[in-house]
Design brief:
Blueprint: H1 2-19, H2 22-25, E1 26-27, E2 43-44, H3 46-51, H4 53-89, H5 95-136, H6 139-170, H7 172-179
Antiparallel strand pairs: 1-2
């Protein structure tokens, strides 16, 4: 129990430490001679752009996306492989039903990984485009980045709720258990 609390504490500490630089990266900067009340846009600070912090944050963010994708893919592949092999070993009267259930479970594992990627990829693409828009000075890239942000906001919430929805769609056993 103590180890679990320690792991949770370390995870929260790493989360705060990795998110901390955002306070230096963005802010409302006023152009010289303009009225500060006319500024209504929060954007990357000049310091973040020139120091390379914005690029570092994009790389850090990418690691925090690809690492979970890698872990999900590897671990769910191992689970799927174990289920697939178990199917071949246990031949008996209910083999076809078991095969169908195993195939459905493996499919569900793949769909869960795909849903995670689909829900979080636009955010990371938007972040990457956001950083590149300052390097290139491109308004078009900045606009595309903003659209990625809009899509991301919806997908963030969907990400939190998608797994039970997928289980309900893909598994009759889950639907029956949920109705009880």
């Amino acid at each position: 129990k103590g180890k679990v609390k320690l792991v949770i504490l370390v995870l929260w500490a790493v989360s705060f430490a990795s998110a901390g630089p955002i306070f230096v990266l963005v802010g409302v900067e006023h152009e010289n001679g303009t009225n500060p009340l006319d500024t209504n846009e929060c954007r990357a600070t000049e310091y973040a752009i020139k120091s390379g912090l914005l690029t570092i944050m994009v790389w850090t963010s990418s690691v925090f996306f690809f690492l979970p994708v890698f872990c999900l893919t590897v671990l769910y592949s191992l689970i799927g492989r174990k289920i697939w092999r178990r199917k071949r070993k246990n031949m008996g009267p209910n083999t076809s039903i078991r095969d169908k259930n195993n195939k459905q479970t493996v499919k569900m594992l793949a769909v869960v990984v795909f849903a995670f990627i689909l829900c979080w990829l636009p955010f990371h693409v938007g972040r990457y485009l956001f950083s590149k828009s300052f390097e290139a000075g491109s308004l078009e890239i900045a606009v595309i980045s903003q659209y990625c942000n809009l899509v991301s906001f919806v997908l963030f919430y969907l990400s939190a709720a998608i797994n039970p929805i997928l289980y309900n769609i893909m598994s009759k056993k889950y639907r029956v258990a949920a109705c009880r």
